[in-house]
Write a structure and sequence with these properties.
Blueprint (H helix, E strand, L loop, with lengths): L2 E4 L6 E4 L5 E4 L5 E3 L2 E2 L8 H16 L4 H9 L4 H6 L3 E3 L12 H4 L13 E8 L2 E8 L8 E3 L4 H4 L3 E6 L4 E6 L1 H8 L5 E4 L7 E3 L5 E4 L3 E2 L3 H11 L5 E3 L9 E2 L1 H7 L2 H9 L2 E2 L2
Parallel strand pairs: 10-13, 11-12, 11-14, 14-16
Antiparallel strand pairs: 1-2, 2-3, 3-4, 4-5, 6-7, 7-8, 8-9, 15-17, 16-18
Length: 275
C-alpha cells in the first residue's frame, strides 16, 4: 500500500511506497526506483520564466491586504520582513502576465487558464534581483496548504531553496518559508526547503557550518528518513533538535513564539555535530 509524500523533483504530491523503493509523481511524471531516476531532465526558457516571476512578484505585493499581513504577523513575521522578502498575495485580479506566451510553460497557469497560486499568500524565491520560483500558502479555508507552480522544477530553473545562501558562512536549513523567516528575524541565515525531501540547492558558496532543523514530532520515522537524505549532502553538519514538550509537534516559528528567542539561541549553540 502506497502513501502520499512530496516529489523531490517538482515538490508536488506523489505516491511513495512504505519502504521508499519506488514512486511516481503524477504532476511532473518523475519516477524513481531504488534511487535510480528515469526522468529525462530538459531545461526550458529559464531567463523568461524568471522575468515573469519577477514581474508577478511586484504585482502580488500590491495585492497583499491587511488580513494577509495579520495572518503573517500572527505567525511571527514582521511588516519589515514582509517588505524585505517581497511577500505578496495571489488574488483573482487578472494580469496580462497570465496571457504571456510562456505562462503555461512557466507554471503560473494551467492549460485551462487557471491561476495556480490563486487565493494564497505567496513567497518569491529571491536570487539577486531575480525571482527563481514562487510558492503559495493557503491562509484560510480548505485545500492544499502549500502549493508550488506547475511543472518540473529543473525545467523551470527553480532549483534553489527559499532564501538560498549567497553570502553567509553559517546557515540553518529547515522546511518552509515561514519557518525560515522566523529564524532569519533572529539574525540567522535560514534557508527553507519546499518539502523535507526536496533536493533543491541551499547554498551557492562554501560555508563553515550547516545546521539542519526540521519539525519534531512524536513519530519521527518519516522525518528521520528525510534528515538522513539531507545530511548526506551536507558538510560540517549539525542537527538542531526542537523539544516538543506536551505538544504533538514543534516547528521553528512555534518554538520562537511560544518558548522564546533565547531558548532557540541555546538550541543552536548546543546543536549536535553529525559530521
Amino acid at each position: 500500500m502506497s502513501q502520499k509524500t512530496y516529489c523531490p523533483n517538482c515538490n508536488g504530491f506523489s505516491f511513495d511506497t512504505p519502504d521508499g523503493s519506488y514512486w511516481h509523481c503524477f504532476k511532473c511524471e518523475y519516477t524513481e526506483r531504488e534511487g535510480q531516476s528515469n526522468y529525462i531532465k530538459v531545461k526550458g526558457d529559464i531567463p523568461t520564466y524568471r522575468s515573469i516571476y519577477t514581474e508577478l512578484t511586484a504585482f502580488y505585493q500590491k495585492q497583499l491586504k491587511k488580513e494577509h499581513r495579520a495572518y503573517l504577523n500572527k505567525r511571527g513575521i514582521t511588516d519589515d520582513t514582509i517588505e524585505q522578502y517581497k511577500i505578496g498575495y495571489c488574488s483573482t485580479k487578472p494580469t496580462l502576465l497570465y496571457k504571456h506566451p510562456k505562462a503555461i510553460e512557466s507554471g503560473i497557469v494551467t492549460k485551462n487558464g487557471y491561476v495556480v497560486l490563486q487565493n494564497r499568500i505567496v513567497f518569491p524565491y529571491l536570487l539577486g534581483d531575480k525571482v527563481t520560483d514562487i510558492r503559495g500558502r493557503l491562509y484560510q479555508g480548505e485545500g492544499e496548504r502549500y502549493l508550488s507552480l506547475m511543472g518540473s522544477t529543473y525545467f523551470r530553473g527553480a532549483t534553489f531553496a527559499y532564501n538560498v545562501n549567497t553570502h553567509a558562512s553559517e546557515i540553518i536549513i529547515t522546511e518552509g518559508e515561514i519557518k525560515a523567516l522566523a529564524a532569519c528575524q533572529l539574525g540567522y541565515h535560514c534557508v527553507g526547503l519546499p518539502g523535507i525531501l526536496s533536493r533543491r540547492c541551499f547554498t551557492v558558496i562554501d560555508t563553515d557550518k550547516q545546521y539542519l532543523c526540521f519539525d519534531s514530532q512524536k513519530d519521527m520515522r518519516y522525518v528521520n528518513r528525510a534528515m538522513k537524505t539531507q545530511l548526506d549532502r551536507m558538510y560540517n553538519a549539525y542537527v538542531i533538535t526542537l523539544p516538543i514538550y506536551d505538544r504533538e509537534k514543534m516547528d521553528i516559528d512555534t518554538f520562537i513564539l511560544s518558548i522564546g528567542a533565547n531558548s532557540f539561541h541555546t538550541l543552536v549553540r548546543y546543536a549536535k555535530k553529525v559530521h
